[in-house]
Design goal:
Chain lengths: 661, 165
């Protein structure tokens, strides 16, 4: 054993003991294991890596946060649907278009469910998708750059909650209307909801970067479509959606949407949808929605689309079936074998488990108890595989391990319940703190879960951490599920409100990370690839500064000839070609966020100076020992001044005479 | 309490040891020949620099197209800090080949961080200029093209176009 290894082991052992002692003091409050085992299970020695990348939805932050497991360390925030001043996302000229919608520029959204792309029903680490709930959209994040590359809006839809769950080979991801609305949306009395408001199940082509688009939409009754998961193995080709509010209530849903004993899971045969479209049974409907995409030049562009393909179940038989499910079901989860469809009836006293095989038999034998808008309702008793008794109060979501067990969260009784897929019997339960919503096992919604850890994402934090005034970070808890008994290992705070999460073994992403952008491949139209080409030009009242940044100076760093009322574009190219050397850029009085420019990239900040004066600008990301020297001055003169445009670094300024401008 | 303090001290001590171990490891990766003097460098490294170039580089007749490719690279990756004929962020490079061997120049281009930490000449330059030379991801081909370009900007060359031999 090498010296270094021995030393590391020593560190681990001692830190373990220290953490173990500390855990003793808090075990009474938290239920953490009062032994060194829990600490050593989550301890990642300095300089070493976590086993998994975890992707936690940012909820009302609109972002995606990347954390390491088992340590719970925050690695990165990936901005998606909300402006993010930390790196200029949604502020810089290159990224603003990503937040464009048919309603205008949307500065914020509510991101709920990350979903990894899959190949053969297993996460493949190409992309992760996430939904915007408020202004319906889905986004694709590239996992070589951890950057949002594409966002498509979902038309004819409101409250995109049940999204973006993906099919086993990433053919489609889905979007749903948690809120039914008139389709097409129009001015009408809310009291005329029943029959006029419609739900929409949307399928988005997901496996072609740059071409994410609505493949088709299915118009369904005006219920609230909540969550979804794709079939796999024998059930590949099907997508399952939960719904509630079969009452079609439009006010006080807390009471009015809970009157019926059962609501529905909608089972959609998406291969049948492809057939119906091929046979001309779909119609094209006008719809305005926006597709935003970042191209090879690293500039986002928006495109307005004007129609969608729509299917109605009555015109495409055998497309949709309703599976009666008690009682306002929330989560719908398909086990790794693809045989069982597990619903979380949040007001139910059991967890119903539907059998895919029985569902197909019931369809063949036409065991229908009703038909709604062309959608047959199957008989509950004909499709049920079993019910899990005593699953805790308020069952919501289920994930699976690779040993035949399911794990379901119980929101009201604040616990995770482990049960067997062989006999639907509960075998273990563990309290969580507090009010757990989603849970996540790496690959736990796929064909091949990595069943070592479970993360419980709790809705209430209360006394788990040092208090921070009225607003608290949400709390996640890491649970070891490798043995017969679940063991609580770690509490860690999360950003925003993580609804769902995904995780993937670190080695699937680590080696393919982009470290910098090659300068000779930079095709940004305002890039300058040599300090010799840096310049300032005027085009009417617009001034373009073609600027470079390298440790540790800007070129130009002295600029004159700007006038009050000009719109100044600082196009800053980072000339560095080394990993982890971003430069930042900010100017006194600017009304936008900084630029954070990765090596080899170009970003543009827009500035409209309002008063004459001298305006310093500087590098905002500590870049070298001479970072504090990385600064410059822009001179702003009154409008109509005869100050020629002039620029330079370290010597005489180059000028462009006023007459020539 | 005393136990905790002891543990803390142990942790600190052990962490320090760990850090030392890491540094020693880093050195081992590049030290492929025994140190021949107190600076820990081989005779080759002292003359030709530390890095991927481990043999002297023979310059042939001047290759104009290679020099032109080198000039393009110079504009993109070097010019922000170096001028040919004057001191800027870093030293002037016009006559660099009169002072250093081609291999040294290429190692400095490709491996600036280690050179500035270990080579006495590069260390002295850092002490003088203060701005560390950044790594600019130059391939051996790029570095060779840059050498060819630098041959064309030297004040004096020998008959066969090789600056000061």
């Amino acid at each position: 054993m090498s010296m270094r290894k021995r030393v590391l082991l020593g560190v681990a052992a001692i830190a373990t003991v220290t953490l173990g002692l500390w855990a003793c003091g808090t075990a009474g409050r938290g239920g953490a294991l009062s032994s060194a085992d829990a600490a050593s299970a989550v301890y990642v020695p300095p300089g070493e890596y976590d086993e998994f990348y975890a992707f936690m939805s940012g909820g009302f932050s609109g972002n995606l946060t990347v954390m390491g497991l088992p340590s719970g360390r925050l690695l990165k925030t990936v901005p998606v649907f909300s402006q993010f001043p930390e790196n200029g996302w949604g502020y810089s000229e290159e990224t603003k278009a990503m937040l464009q919608t048919s309603y205008g520029f949307a500065a914020w959204d509510d991101a709920h469910h990350p979903e990894l792309s899959m190949t053969d029903g297993v996460p493949d680490g190409r992309w992760i998708f996430i939904n915007a709930n408020n202004t319906p959209r889905v986004a694709r994040i590239d996992l070589t750059e951890f950057e949002t590359k594409e966002i498509v809006e979902i038309p004819n839809s409101a409250g995109n909650h049940g999204s973006p769950f993906i099919t086993p080979n990433s053919e489609y991801l889905v979007a749903t209307s948690r809120f039914s609305v008139p389709v097409p949306n129009r001015d009408m009395s809310i009291a005329d909801y029943a029959g006029n408001f419609k739900g929409m199940l949307s399928f988005v082509r997901a496996d072609r970067p740059g071409e994410m688009d609505i493949a088709f939409q299915i118009i369904v009754p005006g219920y609230n479509y909540d969550l979804a998961h794709a079939g796999k193995g024998p059930s590949d080709g099907w997508m399952f959606f939960t719904s509630y509010n079969a009452e079609e209530a439009h006010t006080l849903l807390e009471v009015n949407a809970s009157r019926r004993d059962k609501d529905f899971i909608a089972a959609v045969n998406w291969r049948r949808a492809e057939e119906c479209i091929a046979q001309g049974q779909a119609r094209t409907m006008p719809a305005r929605y926006v597709h935003n995409y970042i191209g090879d030049d690293h500039i986002a562009r928006s495109e307005l689309k004007e129609s969608v393909t729509v299917l109605e179940p009555a015109a495409c038989e055998r497309l949709v079936y309703f599976l009666p499910t008690p009682k306002s079901p929330h989560g719908v989860d398909v086990d790794p074998s693809g045989r069982f469809i597990v619903a979380g009836g949040k007001l139910a006293t059991v967890i119903p488990v539907h059998s895919f095989e029985k569902m197909i038999q019931a369809i063949e034998q036409e065991k229908f108890e009703d038909v709604i808008d062309g959608i047959p309702v199957l008989e509950y008793d004909a499709i049920i595989a079993g019910e899990v008794e005593d699953p805790g109060l308020g069952p919501l979501h289920t994930e699976f391990d690779d040993r035949g067990y399911a794990y379901t969260t119980a929101f009201i009784s604040s616990e995770v319940v482990k049960w067997s897929l062989a006999d639907f019997k509960v075998v273990d339960r563990i309290p969580v703190y507090y009010a757990v919503g989603h849970l996540m096992i790496p690959g736990g919604d796929s064909r091949k879960p990595w069943g070592k850890y479970l993360v419980a994402m709790n809705k209430m934090t209360k006394d788990r951490y040092l208090p921070t005034g009225p607003e608290l970070a949400h709390s996640a808890q890491l649970i070891d599920i490798s043995g017969d008994k679940m063991r609580l290992l770690l509490d860690f705070p999360t950003m925003g409100e993580p609804h769902y999460a995904q995780a993937i073994p670190a080695e699937m992403l680590r080696e393919k990370q982009v470290k910098l952008y090659r300068l000779d491949e930079n095709t940004h139209p305002y890039a300058v690839k040599s300090e010799a080409d840096t310049r300032v030009t005027r085009d009417g009242r617009r001034v373009h500064v073609y600027m470079t940044a390298i440790r540790s100076h800007f070129s130009p760093d002295n600029i004159e000839g700007i006038e009050v009322g000009d719109t100044v574009y600082f196009h800053v190219t980072n000339l560095e070609q080394d990993w982890d050397v971003p430069h930042g850029f900010a100017a006194l009085g600017m009304e936008t966020a900084e630029l954070l420019i990765m090596p080899g990239a170009t970003r543009t900040l827009t500035w409209v100076p309002k008063q004459p004066g001298i305006y310093p600008f500087y590098c905002t990301d500590f870049c070298s020992a001479l970072h504090q020297e990385m600064q410059g001055y822009a001179r702003v003169s009154p409008r109509g001044s005869n100050v020629p445009l002039a620029w330079g670094t370290g010597g005489e300024l180059k000028t462009q005479p006023v007459a020539a401008q | 309490m005393r136990r905790l303090v002891k543990l803390g001290l142990l942790l600190a001590a052990v962490t320090l040891l760990g850090a030392c171990g890491g540094a020693a490891n880093g050195d081992a990766e590049t030290d492929d020949a025994p140190a021949s003097s107190s600076d820990g460098l081989t005779a080759f490294e002292r003359e030709h620099g530390i890095g991927p170039i481990t043999q002297p580089v023979e310059l042939g007749p001047l290759d104009a197209s290679l020099a032109s490719a080198g000039e393009q690279i110079f504009r993109m990756k070097c010019m922000a800090c170096h001028r040919v004929d004057e001191r800027y962020i870093g030293p002037p490079l016009g006559n660099v080949l009169l002072r250093r061997s081609p291999a040294y120049t290429m190692n400095m281009m490709m491996n600036p961080t280690e050179m500035s930490q270990r080579h006495p000449v590069a260390k002295a330059l850092l002490a003088e200029y203060l701005a560390p030379m950044p790594f600019q991801d130059l391939s051996e081909q790029d570095a060779r093209a840059l050498v060819e370009y630098l041959r064309t900007v030297a004040d004096s060359t020998t008959a066969d176009g090789i600056p000061g031999t």
